[in-house]
TrEMBL record, chain A:
Its main location: cytoplasm. It is found in: Cytoplasm. Keywords: Cytoplasm, Exonuclease, Exosome, Hydrolase, Nuclease. The keyword Nucleotide-binding does not apply. Its EC number is 3.1.13.-. Belongs to the RNase PH family. Rrp41 subfamily. This is Exosome complex component Rrp41. CDD domains: RNase_PH_archRRP41. Residues 24-153, 156-220 form the Exoribonuclease phosphorolytic domain. GO terms for cellular component: cytoplasmic exosome (RNase complex). GO terms for biological process: gene expression; nuclear-transcribed mRNA catabolic process; rRNA catabolic process.
From TrEMBL, chain B:
Keywords: Cytoplasm, Exosome, RNA-binding. GO terms for molecular function: poly(A) binding. Residues 75-146 form the S1 motif domain. It comes from Candidatus Acidianus copahuensis. Component of the archaeal exosome complex. Forms a trimer of Rrp4 and/or Csl4 subunits. The trimer associates with an hexameric ring-like arrangement composed of 3 Rrp41-Rrp42 heterodimers. This is Exosome complex component Rrp4. One of its GO terms (biological process) is U4 snRNA 3'-end processing.
Length: 244, 247
């Protein structure tokens, strides 16, 4: 996005720059078990954002001093590939990537039943293949699906979506221009069936009423995504059932 | 959705349904043993893995469909791969999140002499059949090779599968194992940690056995598995019979 001036985010007909209604999600695609070498893996596409995730473990931890006596240690790496953005990104982990890794780790820790594997480690890797807004949430979802694919017990699958304010309108699932030029950005990740929030961050300003409205919109979006994730997990086995 | 209502006990899924994490599977005062695959909040039970829901009279369980690790249990028979040698014992990989230790005294029946090279008994890369003697949340598993049929493996082959599929390879009342051994004529030992030892009369039979176990691993959630495996082996044997007579 090499524009220097703020574009119009909500067009005259009430639609957004990519033709979506304010409460419409971007098209999504997800798949599990895409990598052979990892214990669990997934690939997820949210609009133009594309993430691949791999999980190893639970396994023995090295170096040993990182082991925790009562639960598994979770190590997370979020990384953007050099070609994921429109200008080449240096492959070395930036300050932003280190922070996002930490945020995702903490969100994941609240969903994995870590107490079942004391003194072990679960390693999660995410690579952003293409970035177009919402990479932290797409990565978190990809990681959650990969963890489930590895057979690691979790409380619930994580579903996540960002809400925000663009040109005074509360919009669901921000795209790149809205993320850049909008008034607020509010990523939310939840475990819908036990009704818990894994991650919530906010950038910009919202009034209390707008915040409530935004959370409401997010939880509706999350429900749709959640059902899609379950479908993805189950479809792998239903296919076989029809064959026989 | 099916709900069995008696004493406020409710099951939300039918037998053999595929459940995913976060699915509310039951509600009420059930007396079920602790399971890593079921997560409980107050009196609501949720599944914590992708698995098959299996209700049984007053209980229910979730059988996982994936899982590449083995969680050790005292008394289990396991097949370990020797990874390293220490002064008084061996470090053994049993596909668990923890590496196991096999003390030298367990094999020798006496303490290891100072300066003795225990490499000549079991070397790196050898497989051992052992029992888990001791393990809990705070210590790594300790193995033992004292007992009949335990010790270093000297012949046969090892087949690696997902540990969660082991009950399927054994089958109800060992029915699947019965089919596999009688149909192929192989000797088999199924260890709890996802390794199968097999000693077959011929290379062809060994291949058939490996194919069959692979099929069990991939199709364990489909009904009538034992019969399908039986047919599969007979089919394969038939194919081989044809090719043999042609050659």
């Amino acid at each position: 996005m090499s524009q220097n001036q703020k574009p119009k985010l909500i067009l005259e007909n009430g639609l957004r720059t990519d033709g979506r209604k304010p409460d419409e999600l971007r098209p999504m695609k997800m798949e599990i078990g895409v990598l052979k070498n990892a214990d669990g893996s997934s690939i997820i596409e949210v609009g133009n954002t594309k993430i691949i995730a791999a999980v190893y473990g639970p396994k023995e931890i090295h170096p040993r001093h990182l082991a925790l006596p009562g639960r598994a240690t979770i190590r997370v790496r979020y990384h953007m590939m050099p070609f994921s953005t429109d200008e080449r990104k240096s492959p070395s982990p930036s300050r932003r990537e280190i922070e996002i890794s930490k945020v995702i780790r903490e969100a994941l820790e609240s969903s994995i039943l870590v107490e079942q594997f004391p003194r072990s480690s679960i390693d999660v890797f995410m690579e952003v293949i293409q970035a177009d807004a919402g990479t932290r949430l797409a990565s978190l979802m990809a990681a959650s699906l990969a963890v489930v694919d590895a057979g690691i017990p979790v409380k619930d699958i994580i579903a996540a979506v960002a809400v925000g304010k663009a040109d005074g309108v509360i919009v669901l699932d921000l795209n790149e221009p809205e993320d850049m030029w909008g008034e607020a950005d509010l990523p939310v990740a939840m475990m819908p069936s036990i009704n818990q929030v894994n991650l919530i961050q906010m950038n910009g300003n919202l009034t209390p009423e707008e915040f409530k409205q935004a959370i409401d919109l997010a939880s509706r979006g999350i429900q749709t995504i959640y059902n899609m994730e379950k479908e993805t997990l189950k479809s792998k086995y239903i296919e076989f059932k029809e064959e026989s | 959705m099916l709900s069995n209502e008696n004493n406020n006990k409710k099951l939300y899924y039918q037998e053999r349904t595929i459940v995913s994490p976060g699915d509310l599977i039951a509600e009420g005062a059930f007396q079920i043993p602790w399971s890593p695959y079921i997560y409980k909040i107050e009196n609501k039970y949720y599944s914590s893995v992708v698995g098959i829901f299996e209700p049984k009279e007053n209980r229910f369980e979730v059988i996982p469909l994936k899982g590449s690790f083995y969680y050790p249990k005292i008394g289990d028979t396991v097949i370990g791969l020797v990874e390293d040698i220490e002064t008084y014992g061996w470090i053994v990989d049993i596909k668990a999140p923890y590496s196991a230790y096999l003390p030298g005294s367990s094999l020798l029946g006496r303490s290891v002499n100072i300066g003795e090279d225990i490499r000549k008994y079991i070397d790196v890369g050898d497989y051992v059949i052992a029992k888990v003697e001791n393990f809990d949340r705070t210590i790594d598993p300790i193995l033992s090779v004292k007992g009949k049929g335990l010790g270093r493996i000297i012949h046969g082959n090892i087949i690696d599968i997902m540990p969660v599929k082991i009950p399927r390879v054994i089958g109800k009342n060992k029915s699947m194992m019965e089919v596999l051994t009688t149909e192929t004529g192989c000797e088999m030992l199924v260890a709890q940690n996802g390794r199968v030892w097999a000693n077959c009369p011929s290379k062809e039979m060994e291949d058939i056995l490996i194919f069959s176990i692979d099929k069990i691993e991939h199709e364990s959630h489909i009904k009538g598995l034992t019969d399908r495996i039986k047919n599969f082996i007979q089919e394969k044997k038939g194919e081989l019979g044809v090719t043999e007579s042609k050659a």
